[in-house]
Design brief:
Number of domains: 2
Mean pLDDT: 97
Structural class: mainly alpha
Number of helices: 8
Low-confidence stretches: none
Largest sheet: 3 strands, antiparallel
CATH topology of the largest domain: minor pseudopilin epsh fold
Radius of gyration: 16 Å
Helix content: 40-55%
Shape: globular
Strand order of the largest sheet: 2-1-3
CATH class of the largest domain: Alpha Beta
Number of strands: 3
Length: 199
């Protein structure tokens, strides 16, 4: 069965007051995310990957020795990344749950230090990619960054929070000010309840 573009968990304009406009959502979700769905389905059609889960395809097609990943991985991984991304944000402005706050402080000394490290990872990712808060196999929390569509699944990590730093994610609202976009993401857009639920 072919993969489908999931609906946004909120209206296109639900995050506008928090710094992510309806225009960005229309381009990012309806066009970019949908392109990964369409191209991913075409890429796996007639292959052994047809009928497999997103996670199985990602793990089976990621090549850690390659300079550039193959078309199946790129589209399927970006499809998965965006499925998570929309859920990791929300309009409600929920406070950070205590268990998540405690874990972040244990691993990063303070919430502010975590935000600084996360923002630095996203701002320092050359070209397109993602910044992540992940849970490693030993249960510790780490900030990482990945190029293009690569995600924490490729390294045996659990993605708790991801921020898309491809230009289409922020250029309409922030132009070339990626650090400002990252600050706004952490301060205004994250659905901390969703992040905590992933632990």
């Amino acid at each position: 069965m072919a993969f489908e573009l999931p609906d946004l968990p909120y209206a296109h304009d639900a995050l506008a007051a928090k710094g992510m406009s309806a225009e960005t959502m229309e381009y990012h979700h309806d066009l970019h995310h949908n392109a990964y769905v369409t191209n991913g389905n075409k890429a796996i059609e007639g292959t052994d990957w047809e009928g497999k889960s997103l996670e199985e395809i990602i793990l089976g097609t990621y090549d850690k020795t390659a300079v550039a990943q193959n078309g199946i991985f790129n589209n399927i991984s970006q499809l998965w990344n965006h499925n998570q991304f929309w859920e990791m944000m929300g309009p409600s402005g929920d406070a950070m749950p205590s268990e998540l706050e405690k874990a972040i402080i244990e691993n990063f000394v303070s919430i502010e230090n975590f935000k600084v490290e996360f923002s630095a990872a996203g701002a320092g990712q050359f070209g397109s990619g993602w910044a992540w808060l992940v849970m490693a196999s030993d249960g510790s929390l780490k900030v990482t960054k990945t190029e293009n569509g690569v995600n924490p699944l490729c390294f045996g990590q659990k993605a708790l929070l991801g921020c898309d730093v491809w230009e289409h994610s922020y250029y309409i609202d922030f132009r070339n000010k990626r650090p400002a976009y990252l600050t706004n993401f952490l301060d205004n857009l994250v659905n901390w309840e969703n992040v905590a639920s992933r632990m």
